[in-house]
Write a structure and sequence with these properties.
The complex is a heterodimer of chains A (338) and B (88). Chain A has a domain of 136 residues: FAD/NAD(P)-binding domain. Chain A contains ten helices and 14 strands. In chain A, a hairpin with a 2-residue loop joins strand 4 and strand 5. Chain B has a four-stranded antiparallel β-sheet, with no helix packed on it. In chain B, strands 1-2 form a two-stranded antiparallel ribbon. The radius of gyration of chain B is 14 Å and the shape is globular. Classes of the chains: A alpha+beta (338), B mainly beta (88). Chains A and B meet through helix 6 and strand 11 of A and helix 1 of B.
């Protein structure tokens, strides 16, 4: 999912940068990442949610991000198969629409970046574990790996799902809890849903892939975990949510279900900046929302590694916000499930 | 469905339990606490891969307790009532 429907100005800058870079990514990487800006609607299920929705839309528009407040008729136009019945558990009062949001092929993004990096002379070494950090004079000077030593002036750490494990080797702790996040896809069917629909009531978002699979994502498993598999009760909640939103999907069979480990930060915003170990730079804590931000996270970490300094976009996301109290609480601000 | 052992009610469905945080993360005492100590208490976590000592609450009986759990395998290694040594 690629979107930038956030509330706080700092987040709008960050995810707005990522969104703009995504729009030119296929060209920049010379690789088709299959970006499809089919639009996304965050539903509102009550008058109170509509008021919060209007506030979010206003905040986004003031920050120069496209957003529109949808009426129930607008929602019905973009997602006619939603459960609009009189007895629906989560009736539609409207929604937050971002027309530039959409989907991209996740594999293609990884492959495209790998090819482009390789072309620029970057070495990508697979199956090579960091066993320790080389620390001299209180500064990070490189890493020990299972395939030898690598020394560097500045070191970047971008290891989603294992940030705390590596931080422990470097001698510090992070404001992170790791959880499993599940997703699943159905068997492929003919085109039936040409937008992305997120319901805060069910905590579920649904889209249809180019191959025709219904792609389903939900909330986090609520048990701290490094196991690359999901818990059954959460999957049950997600599937129940899908059927509440789209009763028509009751006939579908699920093809695949999986879970990945995500590093969740208390304010649902990432950590970008120098770690407590000088010369070691962090790009972590993206929680459930890293994919949409890949181009920005990469750009900002590259800037940090090249200059050793923050720019205006990355500075608010420094680790020091947890001591200063200047959190960027998107879970509360935009009400987006993380 | 995984079963978690409540020290008071015995093995029960995981959905009856709620994660409460790291065991042993004690609130700083007194009025003159350095900022870093507060940040450490409020936000920083060990988040171990492997055995973790955690506070859980069994929502049915309302009791908080300590569960030692492997975060990689989800195996429960021990479960015990909060004693004086865990007062947190």
């Amino acid at each position: 999912m690629v979107r930038s429907n956030y509330y706080y100005p700092q987040s709008v800058e960050l995810y707005g940068l990522a969104h703009r870079l995504y729009e030119g990514l296929s060209k920049d990487l010379n690789y088709n990442v299959m970006l499809s800006q089919r639009g996304m609607v965050n539903l509102c299920h009550s008058t109170a949610e509509m008021e919060v929705g209007a506030r979010t839309v206003n905040a986004m528009q003031i920050s120069g991000i496209d957003a529109e407040l949808f009426s129930p008729e607008d929602v019905r136009r973009v997602a006619p198969i939603y459960n609009f019945s009189a007895g629906a558990r989560f009736p539609v009062f409207g929604g937050i629409w971002q027309g530039r949001a959409g989907t991209a092929r996740h594999d293609a993004v990884a492959w495209g970046y790998a090819r482009a990096a390789n072309r620029l002379g970057v070495d990508i070494i697979q199956n090579c574990e960091i066993t320790d950090f080389i620390i001299e004079g209180g500064r990070c000077r490189g890493v020990q790996t299972t395939r030898g030593t690598i020394r560097a002036e500045r070191i970047g750490m971008a290891v989603a799902g294992h940030s705390s494990v590596l931080a422990e080797k470097a001698g510090f702790r992070l404001p992170i809890n790791s959880y499993a996040l599940q997703a699943c896809v159905s068997e492929p069917v003919k085109p039936i849903l040409d937008t992305v629909v997120l319901s805060p009531g069910t905590g579920v978002y649904v889209s249809q892939s180019d191959k025709g699979e219904i792609v389903i994502g939900g909330g986090l498993d609520r048990i701290p975990s490094y196991a690359q598999r999901g818990n059954l009760p959460t999957l049950e909640t997600v599937i129940a949510g899908v059927l509440e939103m789209f009763p028509i999907f009751g006939q579908l069979k699920l093809m695949r279900q999986w879970a990945g480990i995500v590093d969740v930060v208390p304010d649902s915003s990432p950590i970008i900046g120098e770690s407590p170990l000088p010369n070691l730079f962090l790009n972590c804590g993206w929680g459930t929302g890293g994919f949409k931000a890949i181009p920005a996270g990469g750009t900002l970490l590259a800037n940090l590694l090249a200059s050793g300094k923050h720019n205006d976009i990355s500075r608010p996301f420094d680790l020091d916000r947890f001591a200063s109290g200047r959190l960027i609480d998107e879970a509360a601000g935009s009400g987006i499930a993380h | 469905m995984q079963l978690f052992p409540c020290p008071f009610c015995g093995p029960r469905d995981e959905t009856e339990f709620h994660y409460g945080g790291d065991a042993g993360n004690t609130r700083p005492d007194g009025g003159d606490v350095p900022i870093d100590r507060w940040a450490n208490y409020l936000y920083l976590r060990s988040n171990p891969k492997g055995a973790a000592r955690e506070i859980w609450v069994h929502m049915n009986c309302g009791e908080f307790f300590v569960m030692v759990r492997d975060t990689l395998t989800h195996e429960v290694l021990s479960s015990s009532a909060l004693g004086k040594e865990h007062a947190a």
